[in-house]
Each structure stands twice: as structure tokens, then as C-alpha cells.
């Protein structure tokens, strides 16, 4: 009997284990799965296709069907924060897709770490994240440019979750117990993201203004916070400066570049008026991006100062004693004479801008030289920074003089932006479905391509930029590729009307050139009202503002 018992034990040990968890491929093969995410290494290392995971316990995230995600984050090491099936699905979509895409080509830890951690402890942030995940999935399935009514149920769910988030935030603030200031501003960022995603720019700007006001009050050491400390605790200055100031600075720049009638905000007493200090080397690509945003914010602020000075001098009776204003613009479209005092200020600003931009580029090149083994994702980020840098050099110089003929001096720079953008898009679409619309909260390639298609008058280059807008369905904050392509087509047609075949930028006279002053989109209806002026902008005369409705 004893030997038989021994054999029985040996046989039981020799059997393959019953596999209750793991991917379907490993279950079928009856081997222990390493449960790596999104596909186990045992499958990939042997050339097999991992068939994904079945439902597991509430402490794990599982892939949605067999979709291929871009740079998916790993399984979260905590209990799933919601029980409702639809909420779990939307939260999962955010974790596996939205968090990795939302920062664009320059990802940060803000979305896939800070926001996810906060969503586990704060119900307002959790439901805002669920709403964003649902809205993102709807956008991917619906296509670029707008949301049609065919997916009204999903839109309704996103709205329902957004309402829940606002309700939880109000309950927290009225509970009588001081709430975390970090949570208030993180919720604000999520609400801005949700509204811009769905094309509700007015609501997004209202959230942005509130967030900037709260953040600015906390950055002023001697100032009184907008929200009483009885309701919200002031976050640490380190958290504000490292996590929130860079993001709100970029949002401020995004809103002002999209809506040119809007003025920049001062986050702190020195944020806009003091020249930014540029390091000799950057710690990361994210660090380089933050410094570039600070630099752009300061440059836009100083440009506005020069323009305000010009308009004050030509409209102030005392200043006009020494400045005889011209009666009309010259027929050739030449720029009206700029007062010497203003011209000196402009030249000084231009010199300073150029110097600090060169410092930024030197620091970036030094970082890239020291880190010559960057992966593909980081190389795309570096390429994106070069695009932003080049487009910034064009805009900062040409916009100072407020005259569209200035842009003709930067044809080689326009070509560089377009060539780099073509390379970046080709690299990215090789790893993704070309026709899947992409979304990011940050400005990436769309503003540079918009400027190339509308401010570059070289007929070949501007059409290359237009083709990229048409073939790259994406939304970056307030910027939408389908809308921008429609605007560019309209401007090209208007500027080249009656000229026959155009071979160079010089063939488009100043009187025919269009400058967009404002954009009022209604993305759900695929239309956008643009306000613009045509010809030379004379500071001595009131602008002749025209309007037209663009549809696509």
C-alpha cells in the first residue's frame, strides 16, 4: 500500500497546474502566466500572441477586448475605485489609453501618476477622470472634428459623470472641514480638459480663469487667498511651483494664442515681467518644455507691452504733438511709420528674445548630447520641442512688428517646421492607426501647422501644412485639426483669388493678406465663426473687422 501511495503523490505533482488566472493563451497551454500587462512576457518571448485576460478580482485593470494601446501603464496596485460596470470601463480606458496620450508628444507624470493617485482618494477627481475616459472613447469612435448625435448615450454618460464630480466637489467645500487645495486645482484642470475636449471653450475659459485666480492668490505670499482657509487649505509652495504652475502657464499660453483677443494672466508678481533665467542644461525633456513655456509666456507679455505702447503713443493727444499720423496707408501696403521710441523698444525686445531663445536651444542640445541613447518616445518628444522652438522664433519676431509682410522673411523656418512635423507624424502613425483621431490636452503640432498654413504664403509650403492638418485627425486642447484645415483652405482661397497661378509668397500683396483676430468654434455643428482683418493693420486707424462662418 505504501508504494502505491507514493506513486500517487508523484503523479499528482507531475500534473500541470490548474490555471485559474492569467492570459487566455497561458490558460489554454495550462502554464503559469506571469500576468504582465498588457500582454504576458511568456507569450511574447516565445513568439505567441497574447490573447488578453479574462475578468479578475477588483484589484486589477484588464485590457478592453484586444485593442492595442499606446504606451499602456501597468496594473494599478490598489483596489478598483468604482463598482459600476460602465464607470469601471471608462476609468479603465482612461488608465490604459487617455493617460498615455493626453500630454501628447511630451508626456509627464501628471496624468498617469498624480491624477490616478488622486482619483483613488477623491471622489470628485474620480468621476472627472471617468467622464474624461468616456469622452475620449467617444471621440476615438466618432472621428475627428466633432461629436455627432449617434453616440448620444456615451456623451450623456460623460456629462452625468462630470455632474457627479462637481456635486462631490461642492459637498466637500460645504462640509465645514477644510479640503485639500491640491484637489481643488486638480479638479479644475480636469474640468478644463473636459470642456475643451467637447468644444465648450467658454466654459473651459471660465474654469481656467478661476484656477489661475486661485493659484495666483496662493503664489502671492502676502496676499489673501481667493478661497478662505476655512474651506480649502493652501498647498505647499513646492507643489504649486513644481506641479501646477508649469501646467497652468501652458494653459494660459494656449488660451491666449487660440483667442488672440484674450490677455495673458500674471501667476506671480515676477512671472510675466521678469526675464526668465535659463539653465545651462535641462534635467529632462519635460524640464525643457516647462522652460520654453515660461519663455513664451514672457515673450507674449513683452510683445503686448510694445503694441500697447505703440497704440498709446498714436492715440494720445500729448504724444501726437511729436508724431504726425499718416492720413492713409500707402498703396503699396507698406507699414505706417513706427514712432522712434516704440521702434527702439521693439528692437530691444527682439534682441532679448533672440538671446534667451538661443540659450534655451543650447541647453536642449546639451541635454540631447549627454543623453544620446533616448528611446523612440523621447526622440519624438525632442523633435516636438524643435518644432515648438522654430515656430516660436517665427511668431515672436514677425508679430512684434504687427505686419504680415514680415513673415516672408521666415520661409526657410516655415519649411523646417513642416519638414520636422512630417517626420514626427510619420514616425507616430507607423506605430498607430493613421485614421484613429488623437487627443492631447497640451498644444503640440497643431498651432505650428496652423501658422504655417495661414501665415506662410509660399504656395507649396502652406499646402504641405494643410495636407498634414487634413490627414492627421487630432485635437490638442482648444485646437482641432479639422477646424484648422477648413480655416486654412478658406484663407488660401481668399488670399490667392484672382492672382492666377501663384509661384511665390511675394505674389500675394499686403492688401490681400488675412490676419485672424478671433475664432468662435461650435465643434458639435462643425462650424466656426472667424473674425479677421485684411491688408495692413494701421495703428492710426480703427480696424476693419470682417466675419465669416467656416463649415466643414
Automatic annotation (TrEMBL):
Sequence ranges assigned to domain Zn(2)-C6 fungal-type in this UniProt record: 22-50
One example GO MF annotation: zinc ion binding
Keywords per UniProt: DNA-binding, Metal-binding, Nucleus, Transcription, Transcription regulation, Zinc
Pfam families, per database record: Fungal_trans_2, Zn_clus
Family annotation (InterPro entries): Fun_TF, Transcr_Regulatory_Proteins, Zn2-C6_fun-type_DNA-bd_sf, Zn2Cys6_DnaBD
Presence of keyword Chloroplast: no
Gene3D superfamilies the record matches: Zn(2)-C6 fungal-type DNA-binding domain
Protein name per its UniProtKB record: Zn(2)-C6 fungal-type domain-containing protein
Biological source species: Hyaloscypha hepaticicola
Amino acid at each position: 500500500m505504501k508504494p502505491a501511495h507514493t506513486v500517487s503523490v508523484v503523479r499528482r505533482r507531475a500534473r500541470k497546474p490548474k490555471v485559474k488566472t492569467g492570459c487566455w493563451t497561458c490558460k489554454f497551454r495550462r502554464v503559469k502566466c506571469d500576468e504582465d500587462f498588457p500582454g504576458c512576457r511568456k507569450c511574447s518571448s516565445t513568439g505567441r500572441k497574447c490573447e488578453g485576460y479574462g475578468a479578475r478580482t477588483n484589484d486589477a485593470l484588464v485590457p478592453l477586448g484586444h485593442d492595442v494601446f499606446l504606451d499602456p501603464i501597468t496594473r494599478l496596485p490598489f483596489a478598483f475605485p468604482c463598482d459600476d460596470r460602465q464607470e469601471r470601463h471608462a476609468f479603465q480606458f482612461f488608465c490604459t489609453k487617455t493617460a498615455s496620450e493626453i500630454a501628447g508628444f511630451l508626456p509627464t507624470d501628471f496624468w498617469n501618476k498624480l491624477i490616478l493617485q488622486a482619483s483613488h482618494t477623491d471622489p470628485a477627481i474620480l468621476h472627472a477622470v471617468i467622464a474624461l475616459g468616456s469622452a475620449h472613447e467617444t471621440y476615438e469612435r466618432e472621428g475627428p472634428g466633432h461629436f455627432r448625435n449617434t453616440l448620444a448615450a456615451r456623451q450623456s454618460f460623460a456629462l452625468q459623470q462630470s455632474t457627479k464630480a462637481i456635486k462631490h466637489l461642492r459637498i466637500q467645500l460645504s462640509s465645514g472641514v477644510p479640503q485639500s487645495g491640491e484637489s481643488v486645482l486638480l479638479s479644475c484642470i480636469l474640468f478644463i480638459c473636459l470642456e475643451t475636449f467637447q468644444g465648450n471653450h467658454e466654459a473651459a475659459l471660465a474654469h481656467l480663469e478661476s484656477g489661475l485666480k486661485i493659484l495666483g492668490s496662493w503664489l502671492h505670499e502676502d496676499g489673501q487667498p481667493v478661497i478662505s482657509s476655512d474651506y480649502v487649505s493652501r498647498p505647499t509652495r513646492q507643489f504649486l511651483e513644481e506641479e501646477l504652475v508649469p501646467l497652468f502657464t501652458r494653459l494660459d499660453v494656449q488660451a491666449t494664442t487660440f483667442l488672440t483677443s484674450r490677455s495673458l494672466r500674471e501667476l506671480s508678481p515676477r512671472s510675466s515681467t521678469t526675464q526668465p533665467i535659463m539653465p545651462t542644461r535641462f534635467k529632462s525633456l519635460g524640464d525643457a518644455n516647462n522652460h520654453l513655456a515660461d519663455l513664451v509666456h514672457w515673450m507674449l507679455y513683452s510683445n503686448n507691452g510694445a503694441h500697447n505702447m505703440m497704440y498709446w503713443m498714436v492715440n494720445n493727444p500729448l504724444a501726437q504733438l511729436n508724431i504726425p499720423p499718416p492720413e492713409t496707408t500707402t498703396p503699396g501696403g507698406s507699414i505706417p511709420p513706427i514712432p522712434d521710441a516704440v521702434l527702439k523698444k521693439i528692437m530691444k525686445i527682439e534682441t532679448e528674445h533672440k538671446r534667451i531663445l538661443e540659450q534655451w536651444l543650447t541647453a536642449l542640445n546639451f541635454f540631447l548630447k549627454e543623453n544620446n541613447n533616448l528611446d523612440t518616445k523621447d526622440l519624438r518628444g525632442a523633435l516636438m520641442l524643435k518644432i515648438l522652438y522654430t515656430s516660436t522664433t517665427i511668431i515672436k519676431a514677425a508679430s512684434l512688428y504687427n505686419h504680415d509682410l514680415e513673415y516672408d522673411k521666415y520661409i526657410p523656418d516655415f519649411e523646417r517646421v513642416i519638414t520636422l512635423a512630417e517626420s514626427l507624424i510619420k514616425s507616430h502613425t507607423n506605430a498607430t492607426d493613421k485614421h484613429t483621431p488623437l487627443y492631447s490636452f497640451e498644444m503640440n503640432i497643431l498651432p505650428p501647422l496652423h501658422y504655417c498654413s495661414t501665415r506662410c504664403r509660399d504656395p507649396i509650403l502652406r499646402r504641405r501644412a494643410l495636407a498634414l492638418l487634413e490627414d492627421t485627425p487630432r485635437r490638442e486642447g482648444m485646437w482641432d485639426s479639422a477646424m484648422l484645415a477648413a480655416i486654412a483652405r478658406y484663407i488660401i482661397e481668399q488670399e490667392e483669388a484672382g492672382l492666377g497661378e501663384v509661384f511665390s509668397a511675394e505674389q500675394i500683396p499686403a492688401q490681400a493678406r488675412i490676419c485672424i483676430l478671433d475664432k468662435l468654434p461650435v465643434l458639435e455643428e462643425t462650424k466656426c465663426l472667424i473674425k479677421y482683418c485684411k491688408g495692413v493693420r494701421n495703428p492710426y486707424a480703427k480696424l476693419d473687422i470682417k466675419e465669416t462662418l467656416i463649415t466643414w
